[in-house]
Design goal:
The protein is mainly α and 104 residues long. It has one domain. It has 3 helices and no strands. The radius of gyration is 22 Å and the shape is flat. The N and C termini lie far apart (66 Å).
């Protein structure tokens, strides 16, 4: 099955598809990580447990499941943590914070 359009359109469609799949995998894994210790009442109709099951099925459909996502998330988590630490330690100076006046 051939995709319609020229090469640049196919590349754009492929990039958007990869981006959307990555977002789905990351959101599913974040949801599982956040809600893993939720207070379940033991019902069969627990909405959180059913959402976790759906997310696990999504991750398993991508091949290796949660383990691959965890390995993929490790560099992202490290980089985000480093960025947060750098932003908190280094106050950003602006002309307003330094009380610089514009002279005409």
């Amino acid at each position: 099955m051939r995709m319609p359009g020229d090469a640049s359109q196919r590349k754009m469609i492929s990039a958007v598809t990869v981006l959307l799949l990555t977002v789905v995998v990351l959101c599913s894994s974040f949801f599982i990580a956040i809600e893993a210790d939720h207070d379940c009442c033991g019902d069969e109709d627990c909405p959180v447990c059913s959402c976790i099951e759906v997310c696990e099925r999504i991750l398993c459909q991508f091949g290796r499941g949660v383990h691959t996502v965890a390995v993929m998330l490790l560099p992202v988590v490290v980089l985000l943590t480093a960025a947060v630490v750098l932003v908190r330690e280094r106050p950003w100076e602006t002309p307003v914070s330094r009380k610089v006046r514009i002279e005409c």
